[in-house]
Specification:
heterodimer, A: alpha+beta, 5-stranded mixed beta sheet, 5 strands, about 30% helix, B: alpha/beta, 2-enoyl-CoA Hydratase, Chain A, domain 1, 2 domains, 10-stranded mixed beta sheet, 24 helices
Chain lengths: ~110, ~550
């Protein structure tokens, strides 16, 4: 298992009214991953333009690939002030990109922001 | 035509949301609380934020229900310490809150072998909790149609419940085909032959046999409609706990089934007898047509008395005689045996007791199981006549369930659940239950009998475990050498009665120096009908999380209500 942390620059996400809001997307199984989306806790010093991503992955040695996929994700979506926690079992970069986009969409839908 | 949404392909959360009234679901211990398995992390395996089970409350057709769904795609829906404790907590909440029903979407291969000891104890705690829920008159409905089906201990748990709905795609059995093939060889059960696997374990076969109560199409809406109709019916009629007469009828029906299908190893014969459809139609009939074509099968009788288990009993051999002498004192017992089955009465320092159990490292098949349940039922009725409730000593000596395609086909999981229901009825009738583990006690045979004792004592040099390590290696895809290494250092994983003591699954281990007649008397004094194993596991330091996790789910359920 490899543990990875990323802090990426992004546009601030929509204002969260419900403090406990969180969304889970995907299932931990071979070639797949689960993503938990939560607002960064209010007592954190992280700016509203930063997206936190924490990964536990069964596939070791891919931190550069993760960096590339996730940087692009943070550029495309307004995810500043959000935290994404991932449990991964060897999903391909394409699957990761799709799941991240899906997780963001579901979070927006849960916030009633679509 | 209406669009079908497959139950099989849906996730656990999707199944719950499609079943309940819109926006009524409240999850207990949701993913954001991150109750993950520490045991998987120790093996460098991926964790899930909900440990593979969703628990919560909601409304079905306007009625309050508690609900749980296992996620079959995470580690095969397997039951580990946290996973199991979440379900136990939900069931304990049901006893307090008395919802209209408890709904369980089971999708599980059974014990999570990576934390095998904690897993089997958790399944035993789930079993006890389901029996407690049923005793309160709360109906428990199982919906089965996921990719993992219900195997191992969860196959037994399913048959402890009130009602079972299955899709054709669902499977229900005890030992998985892979396990039988690995240990017994491909001739016994070819696990690659998918059609055969479904003819032995699948939804249509189980429905035809009477092990499931309704066949439902693989469609989320069909499951919701069936559950909703079922709930309406139970609100009117209630769900009375099983009585002595109910279990005697079940005993006879199960015996009749064994006599009817003596050598059957393929579901074809059963389907041909129980359906008015002909063979090619079995595979195309939808659930409604299938239900219409079923002939009544539950009216089978043997016309034999309850105590047929007495046939062929003989005096103990020298070794067993010496064992019984040590336990009760010479001349203080009248025990007999027949093959793997041992039964009789004995005197203890606390007075007379019934003794029922197995010997010679018994592989428990349908035949032995029905002797155990028959003997328990007879003990209950004999004592009723004399207005006494003598303690029952459960001698648990088993290498596990019999690995046999024939026994699986006949529903060994359901037969073992019947044994468990009989043992539980004895407890509710006032009998103290004391389990003695002799030589070895393994998996299904232990789970459905010895593990139901009020107090479980392991005799010196006895062994307790879940599964053969070779079969475990095949199921978990972890190399055998690595498992053997792990077995040397992990109490949660490693075989051994001392590990079960540490985890609270065995109350005490006796020594050779002790006077067993005194140990027996003391153990009888300490029998408690309340399941305190998770508390014991936490106190002894072997199972830190089970009690606190169950408590956490229960408290969130109380706070929500």
């Amino acid at each position: 298992m490899e543990h990875l942390n990323f802090q990426l620059h992004s546009t601030p996400a929509l204002q969260v009214k419900k403090l406990s809001a969180d969304v889970l997307c995907g299932i931990v199984s071979s070639g797949n991953l689960e993503i938990l989306v939560e607002p960064v806790s209010s007592d954190s010093t992280v700016s509203a333009e930063t997206c936190l991503i924490t990964i536990d992955t069964a596939a070791e040695g891919f931190s550069e690939t993760w960096q590339a996929v996730l940087t692009q994700f943070a550029e495309r979506h307004a995810v500043g002030g959000l935290s994404f926690t991932l449990n991964d079992v060897g999903a391909t970069p394409a699957v990761v990109a799709l799941r991240m986009a899906q997780a963001y969409e579901e979070w927006c839908a849960a916030m009633g922001a679509n | 035509m209406r669009v079908r949404h497959s139950f099989l392909e849906a996730s656990a959360r999707e199944r719950i949301h499609s079943l309940l009234d819109p926006h009524s679901f409240k999850e207990f211990c949701p993913p954001s609380e991150r109750l993950v398995s520490p045991h998987l992390a120790q093996l460098s395996l991926s964790q899930a934020f909900d440990d593979g089970i969703v628990t919560g409350a909601g409304m079905l057709s306007g009625q309050k229900v508690l609900i749980a769904a296992q996620e079959g795609r995470f580690n095969g829906g397997s039951v580990g310490e946290i996973h199991g404790a979440k379900l136990v907590g939900l069931l304990h909440a049901a006893i307090l809150q008395k919802p209209s029903a408890v709904l369980l979407m089971i999708d599980s291969g059974g014990v999570r072998l990576h934390e095998a000891n904690a897993g089997i104890i958790a399944i035993s705690e789930i079993s006890r909790a389901i029996l407690d829920v049923r005793a309160e008159g709360i109906p428990v409905l199982v919906m089965l149609g996921g990719s993992c089906g219900a195997f191992g201990g969860m196959g037994i748990v399913v048959r402890l419940c009130h009602t079972v709905f299955m899709s054709e795609e669902g499977r229900l059995s005890l030992s998985g085909p892979e396990v039988i093939e690995t240990v017994m060889g491909r001739d016994e059960f070819d696990s690659k032959d998918r059609a055969l696997v479904w003819r032995v374990t699948g939804g249509k076969l189980r429905r035809a046999l009477g092990e499931a109560d309704k066949l439902v199409d693989d469609d989320l809406t069909a499951f919701r409609d069936a559950a909703s109709d079922w709930l309406k019916q139970h609100i009117k009629s209630g769900a009375a706990p099983l009585s002595y007469n109910d279990l005697c009828q079940r005993q006879d029906a199960l015996l009749a089934r064994c006599l009817e299908f003596t050598n059957t190893k393929d579901g074809r014969e059963i389907l041909a007898k129980r359906l008015s459809l002909n063979e090619p139609q079995w595979t195309i009939a939808n659930a409604e047509e299938f239900e219409k074509s079923l002939k009544r099968a539950d009216a089978q009788h043997t016309n034999k008395p309850l105590d047929t288990w007495k046939e062929g009993l003989q005096a103990l051999n020298e070794e067993d005689q010496a064992f019984a002498d040590r336990l009760f004192g010479a001349g203080q017992h009248q025990l007999q045996y027949n093959g793997y089955f041992v039964v009789g009465k004995a005197q203890t320092q606390r007075g007379p007791v019934h003794v029922i159990g197995t010997r010679d490292r018994a592989p428990i098949g349908v035949g032995v199981a029905l002797k155990l349940s028959g003997a328990v039922l007879t003990a209950i009725s004999e004592d009723q006549k004399t207005a006494s409730t003598l303690p029952i000593i459960l001698i648990s000596e088993t290498q596990g369930q019999l690995l046999s395609r024939h026994d699986e086909l006949l529903g060994l999981n359901g037969t073992l659940a019947h044994v468990a229901l009989c043992v539980d009825l004895a407890r509710r009738s006032g009998h103290r239950l004391l389990t003695l583990v002799r030589q070895e006690a393994v998996s299904g045979g232990f789970l459905s009998f010895g593990m139901l004792g009020d107090r479980i004592c392991a005799l010196p040099d006895s062994q307790v475990r879940v599964m053969d390590l070779r079969a475990m290696a095949r199921v978990t895809k972890i190399p055998l050498e690595r498992l053997e290494g792990l077995a040397k250092r992990s109490a949660v994983f490693a075989p051994g009665a001392e590990n079960y003591v540490l985890l609270g699954g065995v109350h005490e281990q006796w020594t050779n120096k002790q006077d067993w007649t005194e140990a027996l008397a003391s153990a009888l004094d300490h029998c408690s009908a309340v399941d305190e194993r998770s508390v014991l596991g936490a106190e002894r330091g072997g199972r830190h999380l089970a009690a606190s996790t169950a408590q956490r789910v229960k408290q969130q359920a109380i706070a929500f209500a």
